[in-house]
């Protein structure tokens, strides 16, 4: 049995309609809260991939020839449709990911709609420049790249698909999107919505599959650009495959981001930021502030308040709007997170929050705060991607900055202080692509998002994303 709310008409969405090929490897999607199978699908065969590429190529040529304002209108209509279906899309996302409906109602399809609306509005504003050269002159044209490939992680499936599709399509590209096999469903909904909004068939195709499907597409000569959201090891492989064809690449990868809390910080707001910057989406967020550096003067007060707040977290049925914490995405992922919890204890970190009562099921884990974490412990070095917070303490600003930067990652960082001169000074020294001052993990579409160092390159959102989905052509005009 599958869930009628979830089982799609077919595994893939190609050339404007659902497409099935049962010769592909069968796989299933489960509701993480109970482990029940909610949908059965098949990975793409070579025939599905060929037809996705063929239809994307012809749709792209047609789409790029439209007036940009017309392209923008399609994206804005898609945003409107998404908003009217927010409840159903949120339920689907909750069933596929296990994330509480209190989150998916506001952070998933809603964020996707914001992105479609934003880039829909930008589409008609994308222009080149006029360059006077005396008698002669030159101009630039901003042109699309061609057929782009999006590969998504499982934590924000429809948000990731929209964050990649919206700027790609606004610039006149087509996109083939491969969701994570763990959360294959909501990208299919986005594909249907784009067709309803007036996109030509083939402009946004969804093909399902495991890593091999993504790898085959990333190395395909017809793909002009690859945008991956995933882990650093996958990023190395995908960037390597794309490098073979010198394809454009955007990499949104993992992190081990620091939050720096100075003695003069507003305690309540710093505690809330650490709490939700570690436990939102049950800790499965790339930019989470998983190394919380607290200055010694407020360390104890911070830990006491954090422990009180953690004890009050509401864990339970993800479809209940009062629930704050759901399960992890799968039992297999739970095993990885549980290993990190055991290891942290073995390496000498102190657990300052008792385990909370959990519902039955294999994917549940209690949020946990460890204090006394040192820079060399595994918990301070490796991405856990679960609700496991590491609190470290520091004495001086210089020390905090040096230790915050002592990581291979560079995705995000936060600074909490009432001294705004210090806040800006510290942020300027932090090696992270996205920083917050007295706030954390807010990612409005207007603000570019992305990483430094091993956390990746390229940017999503904001006008900056346009640079990564278009190319400039320079035209010299001789007037003689
Ligand atoms: P993975 O790296 O395991 O997978 C990401 C995607 O890549 C999946 O669709 C996966 O397919 C696919 N894939 C795997 N191997 C290959 C390959 N060789 N070639 C092409 N595609 C491949 O990440 P997770 O799904 O486990 O997501 C968690 C990770 O994503 C974390 O590290 C997290 O930090 C990062 N992330 C980064 C974000 C950012 O914006 N910086 C945001 C969200 C998450 P399949 O799953 O089917 O194997």
Superfamily (CATH H level) name of the largest domain: Aldehyde Dehydrogenase, Chain A, domain 1
- The DSSP helix count reads 16
Tally of DSSP β-strands: 20
Q: Estimate the helix proportion, in percent.
A: 25-40%
Strand coverage percent: 15-25%
Please give a structural write-up.
There is one protein chain. By secondary structure, the chain is an alpha/beta fold. It has 2 domains: 12-253 and 455-474, Aldehyde Dehydrogenase, Chain A, domain 1, CATH 3.40.605.10; 258-437, Aldehyde Dehydrogenase, Chain A, domain 2. It is 38% helix and 20% strand. It has helices at 46-64, 68-84, 86-97, 101-107, 109-122, 157-170, 186-196, 211-218, 232-244, 267-279, 299-311, 331-346, 378-381, 397-405, 420-429, 464-467, and strands at 12-14, 17-19, 26-30, 37-42, 130-133, 136-144, 147-151, 174-178, 204-206, 223-229, 248-252, 258-261, 291-295, 350-351, 368-371, 388-394, 412-416, 434-437, 456-457, 470-477. The strands form 5 sheets. The protein has a 7-stranded mixed beta sheet with strand order 14-15-16-13-12-17-18, sandwiched between helices. It has a 6-stranded mixed beta sheet with strand order 9-8-7-10-11-19, sandwiched between helices. Helix 6 (157-170) links the parallel strand 7 (147-151) and strand 8 (174-178). Helix 3 (86-97) crosses helix 4 (101-107). It is globular and about 70 Å long. The chain starts with 11 loop residues before the first strand and ends with a strand. The model has no long low-confidence stretch (mean pLDDT 98). Its cofactor is K(+). Keywords: Metal-binding, NAD, NADP, Oxidation, Oxidoreductase, Potassium. Involved in the biosynthesis of the osmoprotectant glycine betaine. Catalyzes the irreversible oxidation of betaine aldehyde to the corresponding acid. The modification Cysteine sulfenic acid (-SOH) is found at residue 286. K(+) 2 binds at residues 246, 453, 456.
């Amino acid at each position: 049995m599958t869930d009628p709310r979830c089982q799609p008409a077919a595994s893939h969405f190609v050339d404007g309609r659902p497409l099935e090929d049962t010769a592909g490897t069968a796989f299933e999607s489960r509701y993480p809260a109970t482990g029940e199978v909610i949908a059965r699908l098949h990975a793409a065969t070579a025939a599905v991939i060929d037809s996705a590429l063929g239809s994307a190529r012809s749709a792209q040529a047609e789409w790029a020839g439209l007036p940009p304002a017309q392209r923008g209108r399609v994206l804005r209509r898609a945003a409107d449709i998404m908003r009217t279906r927010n409840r159903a899309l949120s339920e689907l996302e909750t069933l596929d990911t296990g994330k509480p409906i209190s989150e998916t109602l506001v952070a998933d399809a809603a964020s996707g709609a914001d992105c479609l609306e934003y880039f829909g509005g930008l589409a008609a504003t994308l222009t080149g420049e006029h360059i006077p050269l005396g008698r002669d002159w030159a101009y630039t044209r901003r042109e699309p790249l061609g057929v782009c490939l999006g590969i998504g992680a499982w934590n924000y499936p429809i948000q990731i698909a929209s964050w990649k599709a919206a700027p790609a399509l606004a610039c006149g590209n087509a996109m083939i999107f491969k969701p994570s096999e763990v959360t294959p469903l909501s990208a299919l909904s986005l594909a249907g919505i784009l067709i309803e909004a007036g996109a030509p068939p083939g402009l946004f195709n969804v093909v399902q599959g495991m890593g091999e499907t993504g790898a085959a597409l990333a190395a395909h000569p017809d793909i002009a650009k690859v945008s991956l959201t995933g882990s650093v090891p996958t990023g190395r492989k995908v960037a390597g495959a794309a490098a073979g064809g010198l394809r454009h690449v955007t990499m949104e990868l993992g992190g081990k981001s620091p939050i720096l809390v100075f003695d003069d910080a507003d305690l309540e707001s710093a505690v809330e930021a650490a709490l939700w910057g570690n436990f939102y989406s049950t800790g499965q967020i790339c930019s989470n502030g998983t190394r919380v550096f607290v200055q010694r003067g407020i360390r104890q007060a911070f830990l006491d308040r954090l422990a009180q707040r953690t004890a009050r977290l509401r864990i339970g049925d993800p479809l209940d709007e009062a629930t704050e914490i759901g399960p992890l995405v799968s039992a297999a992922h739970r095993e990885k997170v549980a290993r990190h919890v055991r290891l942290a204890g073995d390496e000498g970190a102190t657990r300052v929050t008792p385990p909370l009562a959990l519902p039955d099921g294999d994917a549940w884990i209690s949020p946990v705060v460890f204090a006394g974490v040192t820079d060399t412990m595994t918990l301070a070095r490796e991405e856990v991607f679960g609700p496991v917070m590491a609190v470290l303490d520091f004495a001086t600003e210089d020390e905090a900055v040096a230790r915050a930067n002592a990581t291979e990652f560079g995705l995000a960082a936060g600074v909490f202080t009432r001294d705004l001169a210090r806040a800006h000074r510290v942020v300027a020294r932090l090696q992270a692509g996205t920083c917050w001052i007295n706030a954390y993990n807010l990612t409005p579409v207007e603000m570019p998002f992305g990483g430094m160092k091993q956390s990746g390159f390229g940017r999503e959102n904001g006008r900056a994303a346009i640079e990564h989905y278009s190319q400039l052509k320079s035209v010299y005009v001789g007037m003689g």
